[in-house]
Structures are given as C-alpha cells and as structure tokens.
Amino acid sequence: MSLRNIKEKVGLFLYPHKDLVLSRLRFLRVLASLGALAIFILYYGFPNSPENAAYLIKLTKSIFGFFVLSYAVRVFFAADSWAYLRSSRFEAGLILLLLLDVVSVFILRVNLLENFFHSLDIENFTPFYILSIQAYLLLLVGLEIVKVSAGVTGIKLKPATTFIYSFMLLIMSGTGLLMLPEMSVSGISMPFVDALFTSVSASCVTGLVAVDTATYFTFKGQLVILALIQFGGIGILTFATFFALFLKKGVGISHQAMIRDFMSEESLFNAKSMLLQIIVYTIVIEAAGSLLLYLLWDMKAPFYDDPGEMLFQSVFHSVSAFCNAGFSLFSNGLYEDFVRESYILHLVIAGIIFFGSLGFPALRDIFSIRNVRSRLTAPWKNWKLSTRIALYASIVLVVLGAALFYLLERNGAMQGQTGLAAFATAIFQSVTTRTAGFNTIDMASLGTPIVILFIFLMFIGASSGSTGGGIKTSTFVLIFLSVITTIRGKKNLELGGRSISFDLLNKAFTVFIFSATYILLGTFFLAIFEPQIPILDLVFEEVSAFCTVGLSRGITAGLSTPSKIILIISMYIGRIGTLTLAFALASRVETTGYRYPKAHILVG
User: pTM of the prediction?
Assistant: First the structure.
C-alpha cells in the first residue's frame, strides 16, 4: 500500500473531525505564541539562575516541537499538501532548518549549529545556540501574529482608528519591556512614567529623553529602543502588511486604505505597490548609512577597537537618523568630544536624515528603477507635483536655515569655525532641526533669534509620507500659496501648472490651526507646571515634542511628572497626525447634498 493510499484512508477516517482539530490547533497556537513571548521576556528581562535558564530553554524547545507538530497536521489535512507547502514555504523553511539540526544531532551525531559557530572561532557557542533557537521560535510567533493581524480587515473600525491603536499597542509593549529589570544598568525596574516617556519618544521617533540612553540602559534596553524606532518610523502597519503580502495572504481593501492614509498615497493600487519598495528603500539606505558611519568613526571613539560595538553604534545611529528619531548612544549626542569635529560623519548623518524626511512617495518617484528608466526615454516627463513640493521645499528650507544659522551664530555657537567645519555645522543643524533632533552644538548656548528660527523650522517639519513630523512641507506650501493667491486677488489656487482643490486647502488649514492651537495649549500647561523655566524654553520643548523633533534646551530630564505627561500626549498626537486623529474621532456626515444661502462677513 502506497503512502498516498495510507494518507487517504487515514484522512477519510479523521475527516469528520477536521474542523474541530484545526480550530483547536489554531487556539493552541495562539496560547503557545503567548507562552513563547512570556518565556522570552522571563529569559531576557529578569535575572535567572542557571537552573531556571535551562528550564526555560526546555520549555522553548517544547513549544517549538508543538509548532512543528501543528504544521505537520495542517499539511496532512490540506486538500493538496504540496500546494500548501508552496504557499507556506517561509514557515516550512524555518521548521526544516530546525528538523535538520535535530536530525544531525540525534542521527548523524553532528551538531550543524555547533560546527557553524566553531567555524567562526566562537568556542562558547551555547548563548548563540540558544539565541538561534529563540530566534526561530520568535519568527514562528511573528508569523502567527501576522496571521491574526490579517483579520484586522474584518474589524469594523476606521482605517485611521486602527492606525492609532497600532501605535498604542507598540507604545505599551515598549513601556512594558523597558520596565524589565534587565533593561537598565541598575538592575531595577524603570519608573513607569519614564519608561512610558521613553517608549513614546522612540515609537513616535521624537528623541526627547527622560534619562541618558547611553548610561541608563543595558545593551538589551538599547535594542528595545532601536526596535521601537524602526517600527515607529515606517509604521507597524507597514510591517504587518508587508509580511501578509510575503506570506501570500493578500491584503484587504480596508488594510490597504490604512497604508494609503499613512503614506499619503492617492490610490489603493499605489499604496499596495509601494509596500515592498518601502522595505527595500529602508534596508538599502539604513545599510548604506551604517557602512559609511562604520568607516567614519573617529579613532578617539571609546568603541573604536571593538568591531562589534562599533557596528551596533553605526546601525543604531543610521536607523535613528533615517527614521528621524534623534536618539543617540552618546550622553551629549553628537556634541560628544570624540565626534564633535567629525564633520564628514555629520554630513553623512544629515544625508540619511534628509532621505528619511523626504517621504517614501517622493523617494519612489525619484529613485525607482521604473521611473528613472521612463524619464531617460522621455526626458520631458517631470516628477509628480507632490514630489516637487517635497524636494524643492526641503532644499529651500535647508539652505535658508543654514544661511541664517551661520549669520546669527558665527560669533556664537560657531565661533572659531571656518571652511568645512562651518559649512557642515550650519547644514547639519538646518537639516536636523526640521525633524531629526541630533545636535552638534550646545543647544542651551543659542541666542534668542536662532531659537525662534528653529521653532519655525520644527513647526514645518518633514514631508508627507515620511518618517518625520511637523505640519509637513506640503501643508506650509499650500497655506503660503493661498496667502499669495488672496493678496493677488486670484480666485483659483495654481501650482506647477495644476489647480489645487479647496478640499486640500481646507485640510492644510485644519492641520495648521489644530497644530498651532495644540502647541499653544501645551505651552500654557507647561508654564503652569514649570513656572521657573523661561517661556521660550517651554515653547521650544513643546514644539519639539509635538513636531516629533527631539531637540531640547536641556530641560527634559528635570521636568515634573505632569509636564512629562503633557509631552507624552504631544508626541503621540504629533506622530499619528492631527488629521488622522480628527478623522478617527469625527462622526460620519449623513449627507452634504444641501447648501445654505451665502453670507458676507467682514474680515480683517
């Protein structure tokens, strides 16, 4: 009797129980996933004796065995087993790697992972072996989470509301992880408010810090912050949708609408096609940035003789720069002694920040192979209007900011700098002030005029569909265009040979008024709770938080708990977007098919 006949007979016998078995397995996989996450937290988040650690590893392997069994059962019950294997080849590949390792140990008496680590001259391979097993398991758990998240399309929520909840989930997860004892150097759980502040600042890619990231957190804590920056920078929904596509599960219309809203795309088709390119651009730019930073660190850096630490520093700062987060692993940021005069490195970080602030739609329009090839064959084709606004407005703001910074601070913060030093410092501060939050100068030493200029640049911020904050360059351009149009007495808004609809203008004014009003209210309450701090510093701090910039005049760590809560709310609302929040909270209008008589109101 062939194996296929045996499978058919067993299948016919078990077929009446198929739905029950698969539903129970689905439920058990969810429990196993939660258990795996709990074990991972216990293993890395708390001090463990060797006995407890060994017990947790046994539990990890048991859960892994359950996932293997569950997958085998699903393959067995599939109508076409080979088709199911092909459709879930990523999961099958993970399980196959584990089975190869098990078979090599128990049958061939050869430990493939041990030999691999020995080939890398790693004698104490046990921690790496454990990490490999846990990484396998986390990938499987991640696949289960993606499958569950795919069901978000069936939830009757607005796309904007789901986007807001996704950031809430990321923030609370980060807060819980940062409060684990093993995340802080002291071995004591981080206070809740400080952990929440740090998690919000990282997830909302702001960069304001309540504690010194370099000295307060262990390597594990810094890894958590790095993950929060990456997920918060390009959006947790983008990751979920990418993996759903990768697993061939498809993306529903409402899920595509979430990505469209987040990326400011014009159509669902464009939003869906952009997902893979988002991941590619992110990986390429961050990897290139990491490589350049690795090559440019000064020999005076304390980690220069440690390749592993230098690589982590490079990756962390590259990701932080591209996501416009502004987090640094140096106590004084880029104003630290060993990096303060590394001007080429400053320009590289400024370039990474600029690409991150330009926006994914603009990056795709400018750099995608298809568009480049199209413009080479048809040179008269121009970039999209939104791309031109993002690029030209960013360049104008960078040049204007650098010129004014040099003129106002050449005898102040830039005293003694000439040539490349002056150029790099002026360009860097102009770029980073709009959204990133790094600093190569002492922010507390700046004069009042340049502080006001920085507030203006922070308020405008980055471009739409980017990792940065602010009201966005397109909003500022539309409002400025509206003012010019009104002064000239024109009735239509025109830009780049195109007419701008008044719906877009209304959205721009909504964002502007909401943002300005919120910043005014936030500053008002900060002034109540911090009467001893100069009002200009409070305005600077509030704008930096709401526009997710991360620059500070050195007052963040000393703020009271109520003030930190105000900044937490400001960072969150500034990141998810005032318009997204308004759409999520607004009630649906039943009809707009009517019009009241026109009224004339005196203005001005």
Answer: 0.84
